[in-house]
């Protein structure tokens, strides 16, 4: 086994033709205008951002006068939205498509969406959006992580869950060769599922580390969304340990934990809580070397303290006991979960924590009676001492910086 490396509106509409500086046209003349001017494809504009949520729109529009185009689903239909930052607010107006193919706003018609933008940006016309007079000063261009659906090709289904399906696929950037990726296709179209995917994307795009799963972006031209990530071919650490069993040496298991701790140290240095650390969320890459990678950012939060909803499902076996009383997770609760993951990594044969107990017994023993896991027989004494520190009292738990140093020291001496 080779060395390891850890990855882990109110809305109104506006349009106008600038080809011949057309004035207001009644709806009946819309078709005549279209035949004369033709229709441009607004989805090809570099400031078209697809189905971009409100939160991401606000994040992109930082300065007054900046604007972008996006789509927003409303009443079962996709509307073209012109969003503008004006002062501290984001104002939005709908660009409506004419039945005959053009575009309309406030009684004015245009051959293309670009004509609308040109009128208000190039000619510096003021635009009245819900009583607010704005000017379009600077378009915000599509970011690298905002992918086009046509850039992504789905090939083979790898798995599925309540959120949707994960595929092996390829991603092709302009003027580049295609490369293999993992694609999470959101098939559950509810608001909660959509929000969860975008939260995951926001978190992942902030990080760049060899031991953290890389996110390339979100394809958001239309539904279903694609979350496009690095493909880690070797599967999860729990499956790896279950299949390889006694063939996985003590040093190799320690190396997995060390590389995981390095990835988690990086995340914590960015004030990111993972909140779902377990062997099932460490992935192994067989392409270059066996590489555990921190994965599954669905529960991750960019914060140092986070109030959880106790009524929602929780990973009971990895959850620090104090969370049941405080309902707050923080860096030390991530360390506790890592301590439980250390236990997992040294079970032989592999088993989940408290494998013989049902959830209610785990709760009673751990929360009510203070029971803690004991180091497995395979685990070296020094690693066992570190594990017990990680799952010990909250105030005594080490940081991931300390954990990484301890594991690295052990590897050098073994």
Automatic annotation (TrEMBL):
ATP binds at residue 184. It catalyses: L-tyrosyl-[protein] + ATP = O-phospho-L-tyrosyl-[protein] + ADP + H(+). It holds the Pfam family PK_Tyr_Ser-Thr. Residues 152-411 form the Protein kinase domain. Its EC number is 2.7.10.2. This is Tyrosine-protein kinase. SUPFAM superfamilies: Protein kinase-like (PK-like), SH2 domain.
């Amino acid at each position: 086994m080779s060395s390891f490396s850890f990855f882990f509106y109110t809305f109104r509409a506006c349009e106008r033709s600038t080809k011949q500086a057309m004035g207001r046209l009644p709806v009946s003349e819309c078709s005549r205008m279209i035949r004369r001017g033709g229709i441009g494809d607004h989805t090809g504009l570099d400031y078209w951002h697809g189905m971009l949520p409100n939160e991401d729109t606000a994040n992109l529009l930082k300065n007054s006068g900046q604007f972008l185009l996006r789509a927003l689903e409303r009443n079962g239909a996709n509307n073209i939205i012109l969003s503008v930052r004006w002062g501290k607010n984001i104002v939005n107006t709908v660009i409506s498509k004419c039945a005959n193919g053009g575009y309309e706003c406030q009684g004015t018609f245009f051959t293309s969406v670009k004509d609308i933008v040109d009128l208000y940006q190039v000619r510096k016309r003021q635009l009245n959006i819900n009583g607010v007079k704005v000017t379009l000063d600077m378009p915000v261009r599509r970011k690298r992580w905002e992918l086009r659906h046509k850039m992504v090709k789905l090939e083979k289904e790898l798995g599925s869950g309540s959120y949707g399906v994960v595929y092996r696929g390829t991603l092709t950037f302009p003027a580049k060769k295609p490369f293999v990726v993992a694609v999470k296709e959101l098939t559950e179209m509810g608001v909660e599922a959509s929000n969860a995917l975008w939260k995951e994307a926001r978190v992942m795009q902030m990080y760049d580390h060899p031991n953290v799963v890389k996110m390339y972006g979100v394809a958001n031209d239309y539904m279903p969304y694609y979350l496009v990530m690095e493909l880690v071919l070797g599967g999860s650490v729990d499956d790896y340990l279950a299949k390889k069993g006694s063939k996985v040496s003590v040093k190799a298991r320690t190396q997995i934990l060390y590389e995981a701790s390095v990835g988690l140290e990086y995340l914590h240095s960015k004030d990111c809580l993972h909140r779902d650390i377990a062997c099932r969320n460490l992935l192994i890459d067989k392409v270059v070397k066996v590489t555990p990678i921190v994965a599954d950012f669905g529960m991750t939060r960019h914060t140092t303290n986070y109030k959880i909803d106790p009524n929602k499902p929780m990973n009971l076996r990895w959850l620090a006991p104090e969370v049941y009383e405080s309902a707050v997770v923080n860096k030390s609760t991530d360390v506790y979960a890592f301590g439980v993951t250390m236990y997992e990594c040294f079970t032989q044969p592999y088993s989940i924590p408290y494998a013989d107990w049902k959830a209610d017994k785990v709760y009673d023993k751990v929360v009510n009676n203070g029971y803690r896991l004991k180091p497995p027989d395979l685990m070296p004494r020094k690693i066992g001492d570190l594990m017990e520190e990680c799952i010990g009292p909250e105030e005594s738990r080490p940081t991931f910086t300390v954990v990484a140093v301890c594991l690295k020291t052990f590897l050098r001496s073994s």
